[in-house]
Amino acid sequence: MDTKKLKKLMDFMFLITLFFFPVEMAMKLNFGFLSPYKVSLLFLIILSFIYVIKEKSFKDFFLSFKTAWKKFKYPIIFTCSYIIFDLISLLWTKDKAFSLKKYITIGPALICLLYSFFYFYMHNKADGNIDEALKKLFFTGGIVALFLSVLTWIYVIFLGRTFYILRTSLQSDYNQYALSIYIGFFIGLFYILKYSTKYKLIKFFVFITLVGPIFYTSGSRRFLLAILPSFMIFIVFAILYVKRLNNNFNIKKFIIVLFLSLLTSFAIISLYNNHSNKIYEKLKNEFNSDDFISSMDVDTDDILHGFALEKSLSEKAETIKSGSALGQREKIWSIAIDEIKSYNIKDLILGKGGSHHRDIYRTDKARKLLFPENTPKEKFHDYHPHSFFFVDILDGGLIKLSISILLIVSIISIFVKLFLRNEYIMSGLILIYGANYLYSQSIDSINGIFENRLTYIFLIISYAGAFILDEKEKNY
């Protein structure tokens, strides 16, 4: 295989890896430790070694990292600082095994981030810019959202339900499912805006009406809250982008199509609500029949548990209106706040180690607050603070929290510079994902910001923005 074909194969394998990166959040595709994402990443690593052997040099990889350091220095510094400090804090961590477990996610995700440096460098080296690299990346993101949405509607149409009955999800964690589609949705919209040349408005309509309703039907309150503001940001930045190009794109038709897409999406949501409620009532009436129990691919206890937890989508939306969308978090956060108040100066600076954000919820006092009275011990399960702020300060004190904040500030500076340079596609994406990232990490960070795959998508997009910014500044 010649070098040119090898590079194309490496590109393809990187994009396949990025495809499975969010898809595996939406669907359970693990086979023990292995999964399509990890297998494709392994092939990418093998191909990279073959490339080095053929070239007899690490030069391109070294230069790609050198380029990244120049263009993306501060986010790299803060990312490395966070991970190094987290590993050092193992010295005073109570449950070291638990603290290290997150690196099963962090390790492969960091490899993807590092490879993105090489991906953009090689495209810039070949083409003089990274436009073709971005085109492939955006297309992959759009396909992720489209694939998951179409698969969802196939389940609904042909099987009558997905994992749940009253909401759409391809796995038990409907928030992760909605996040996976969210990741691809806006990348796909910007792909149509920037790269599609034919039937642009028709593509917008089809894409939005297939994918958009999922954010409501999933029953994920955080994305129900996030989707409309994010969509408004997209519209504003899309109009700014089109006006900057000063081409023949009809903005009025664009707004009309988006409005029709939203109306159609609401109609689909209404149809789904009626459909799912009918199936739910029918199955509830048949619940005690042996035929119904045997038709499910899960244990009877799981079915009972699932039915007990299911709420209609209107009930889920009502919790947002009433202000109760945060559920148990007020109790959870109160435990974290009380613990932080008890810290001495050393603990406040260094934290109490990488497992402490879990340890505090394993006490009898915490369990009395969080679980109903007389709950059997076997029904206890671990809680976490549901916020990167509390996770960081409990585990790593002000040092770790400061690093997280500095990382976010460094990305904000990239956004501001891109916006001032009229780079509305990249600045729009960074704003959309950045705002959602801060919001989701503030109310549902499990083991810190780097265990969340959205962090790495956000960093890859931000690096692409920094790359464009640096190249543009050279021309001034």
Low-confidence stretches: 289-309, 316-325
Number of strands: 0
* SSE order: HHHHHHHHHHHHHHHHHHHHHH
Q: Estimate the helix proportion, in percent.
A: over 70%
> What is the C-alpha radius of gyration, as a whole number of Å?
24 Å
Structural class: mainly alpha
User: Biggest sheet: strands, sense, closure?
Assistant: none
Distance between the termini: 41 Å
* Inertia-based shape: globular
- Beta-strand residue fraction: under 5%
Summed over residues and divided by their number, the pLDDT gives a mean of 85
- Count of DSSP helices? 22
Structure description:
With 476 residues, this protein is an all-alpha fold. The chain has a domain at 329-476. Helix content is 76%, strand content 0%. It is built from 22 helices and no strands. Helix 1 (3-26) crosses helix 8 and helix 3 packs across helix 6. It starts with a helix and ends with a helix. The model is unreliable at 289-309 and 316-325 (pLDDT under 50).
Quickly describe the structure.
With 476 residues, the chain is mainly α.
Secondary-structure blueprint of this entry?
Layout: H1 3-26, H2 36-55, H3 59-71, H4 73-88, H5 96-101, H6 103-127, H7 131-159, H8 174-195, H9 200-211, H10 214-217, H11 221-245, H12 251-285, H13 290-295, H14 300-309, H15 313-322, H16 329-341, H17 345-350, H18 356-359, H19 364-370, H20 388-420, H21 424-444, H22 453-474
Helix pairs in contact: 1-2, 1-6, 1-7, 1-8, 3-6, 4-20, 6-7, 6-22, 7-8, 8-9, 8-11, 8-21, 9-12, 11-21, 20-21, 20-22, 21-22
